[in-house]
Automatic annotation (TrEMBL):
This is Sugar kinase. Gene3D superfamilies: 3.40.1190.20. It comes from Roseibium porphyridii. Residues 6-294 form the Carbohydrate kinase PfkB domain. InterPro entries: Carboh/pur_kinase_PfkB_CS (IPR002173), PfkB_Carbo_kinase (IPR050306), PfkB_dom (IPR011611), Ribokinase-like (IPR029056). PANTHER family: 2-DEHYDRO-3-DEOXYGLUCONOKINASE, HEXOKINASE FAMILY MEMBER. Keywords: Kinase, Transferase. The keyword Kinase applies.
Length: 302
């Protein structure tokens, strides 16, 4: 397998409030978070790349600089003349966070609009990682090109991992979200949902039910996360549960699932051992939730 981890999706500008009443600017996004942690969890013999779309303006250049300075390869990123990157703002009211988004015309929405570009990017990848958010922001035509490219990449030996990360507000309707996510799961070696989302939007009674549903859709392995509760790993005819170490003081659960996925996959790609991969995933997620923010500098990048 080629030692190349390719994450695909949308990285956004993040405006986060400071104690002084101003905002500090950063960059974040679910698949970007996973790429960032995968870079830290994988040995330096691996390349970690990000595929998205950006514009040709100053803020897009800053995003590319941020990725490069995180040792994430940007060669596959599409640059569009007439678009720029998406943005979100975090607002605090009585200690509760809420989010406002400006992303409906973001350049990332065009990440899959050139099938030849997609085939080239996927062709070099040992592992392709994407999420339900990646699919949600694409047009119906581009979703279908994306799935075709996944199929071809798998035939050439790439592995595929997917976190459904169900966000109904990003989709045209719930029915489309459910059917596209189910179809995508059928092209995957690893489907890595969070049970809370699956319970809410697919009505699964237990994590094992979520696992069975994605196996029936055609996934090879399903890893269901469930906050502090057991992680359920399933392959056809086989289920195992692993209890994460309890975490005493939780500061901020942002990126718990994204970091879990990165450390799980980084371990599994090398060890092919489910138990040690779950342990690695839970250990990294436990550290991440004991710090503020999505990107916690606990491990140095390789
Ligand atoms: P998401 O961020 O997608 O909602 P989860 O909440 O399911 O993800 O958490 C992902 C992983 O993070 C869990 O499988 C677990 O390993 C770890 N984790 C999350 N919350 C806790 C917690 N309260 N105590 C211990 N581990 C946790």
């Amino acid at each position: 397998m080629s030692k190349s981890f390719l994450a695909v999706g949308e990285c956004m500008v993040e405006m986060a409030p400071t104690a002084e009443g101003t905002y500090s600017m950063g960059f974040a996004g679910d698949t970007l978070n996973t790429a960032w942690y995968a870079r830290r969890a994988l040995p330096d013999s691996w390349t970690v790349s990000y595929l998205t779309g950006v514009g040709r303006d100053q803020i897009s250049d800053q995003m590319l600089e941020f990725l490069k300075s995180s040792n994430i390869n940007t060669d596959q990123i599409r640059k569009l003349d007439d678009r720029t990157v998406g943005l979100y703002m975090i607002q605090l009211k009585d200690g509760e966070r809420s989010f406002a988004y400006w992303r409906s015309q973001s350049a990332a929405r065009c990440l899959a609009s050139d099938p030849e570009h997609l085939a080239r990017a996927f062709g070099n990848a040992g592992l392709i990682y994407f999420s339900g958010i990646t699919l949600a922001i694409l047009s119906a035509k581009d979703r279908s090109a994306f799935m075709d490219a996944l199929k071809s990449a798998r035939v050439s030996g790439s592995k595929v991992a997917f976190d459904p990360n169900l966000r109904p507000r990003l989709w045209e309707n719930l029915e489309t979200m459910r059917s596209v996510v189910t179809e995508a799961a059928g092209h995957c070696d690893f489907v890595m949902p969070s049970f809370e989302d699956e319970l809410e939007h697919f009505g699964d009674a237990t994590p094992k039910d979520s696992a069975e549903r994605y196996l029936a859709a055609g996934a090879d392995m399903v890893v269901v996360k469930n906050g502090p509760e057991d992680v359920v790993c399933a392959r056809r005819g086989e289920h195992q549960s692993y209890t994460p170490q309890p975490v005493g003081s939780i500061v901020d659960t942002t990126a718990a699932g994204d970091s879990f996925n990165a450390a799980f996959l980084a371990d599994y790609l090398i060890s092919q051992d489910v138990a040690s991969s779950v342990e690695a995933g839970a250990k990294l997620a436990a550290t991440v939730i004991q710090h503020r923010g999505a990107l916690v500098k606990i491990l140095e990048p390789a």
